[in-house]
From TrEMBL:
The keyword Transferase applies. It comes from Streptomyces alboflavus. The keyword Transferase applies. InterPro entries: Nucleotide-diphossugar_trans (IPR029044). This is Glycosyl transferase. Keywords: Transferase. Residues 75-110 have a biased composition (Low complexity). One of its GO terms (molecular function) is transferase activity. Residues 72-110 are annotated as: Disordered.
Amino acid sequence: MVVVGNGAPVPEVPEGVRTIELPENLGIPGGRNVGIEAFGPGGTDLDILLFLDDDGLLAHTDTAELCRAAFEADPSSASSASASPTRTPASPSAATSRACAPRTRCAPPA
């Protein structure tokens, strides 16, 4: 796991989590690309990639494991998968946006 501070200080993280603190904000795509490259050129050392921005919260503490289990159950879905839990701290009662892998198996986010 890697946490990228995209132009901001990296908070304290659990042992074993890598951190990268960028001196300037590269924007969402730039920060994500730095995180991907931390796992080899083009993320070659990755099996699963999960992005969580600073304004999002995971609905469950085991979200990463749930994603891994889904991909292990159906490896063909990995090439077209996305999961986007987006409940913001400013609006905890807001509906959670959700996308499933592959998109043709789920209804579009509400």
